[in-house]
Amino acid sequence: MTSDSSPVLIVGLGNPGTIYAQTRHNAGVMVIEELLDRTTPMPAQLSVHKKTNTEVAELTAGRLTGRRTILARTRSFMNVSGGPVKALASYYGVKPADIYLIYDELDLDFGTVKLRLGGGDHGHNGLKSVTKSLATPNYNRLAVGIGRPPGRQAPADYVLKPFSKQEAAELPITLADAADELIAALS
Q1: Which residues bear the site annotation Discriminates between blocked and unblocked aminoacyl-tRNA (predicted)?
Q2: Is 25 assigned a catalytic role?
Q3: Measured between alpha carbons, how far is 91 from 20 in angstroms, rounded to an integer?
Q4: CA-closest candidate to residue 163, choices 21, 39, 37
Q5: CATH of residue 135
Q6: Residue 140 assigned ligand-binding role
Q7: Structural domains in the chain (count)
Q8: Which of 26, 91, 168, 187 has its C-alpha lying 20 to 30 A from 18's C-alpha?
């Protein structure tokens, strides 16, 4: 899925601020945190990258994958993620085929992860923004299933709520599965 001439860019989508930190919409950011914890010889940390309105960790080949890897999360709200993702890709010279976007997916059961290249946005405003900014849908997407809202709860409200107690107990497994999926794809 990737070409060896450019670094790999892995971006976790979510909303900024502590009020959103543990919400379903921040599943992508949570996977980035899992990946940061896995870097060797010690966990990596994100630092502010003002030119792109993001937070990044630049990893040399071998710290997480066999390639130079840029881990990032946007500092903007989900619905306007495209600008920062495009700015990162431009700054680091990353082609769309070497971008891996991690996001929450209503249409997958909680705990399911799915990696794919290209495709539609499934109504996800973060993906719409990125596709528009990159002018192509041909980037990698790692969907982290959060399931559909119960009853008649509006999806927009559901994604901004914290995980249930049962989901929160199972969440570390899902985040580990998502990180495993990405690392396997890049090995």
Answers
A1: 15
A2: yes
A3: 27
A4: 21
A5: 3.40.50.1470
A6: no
A7: 1
A8: 91
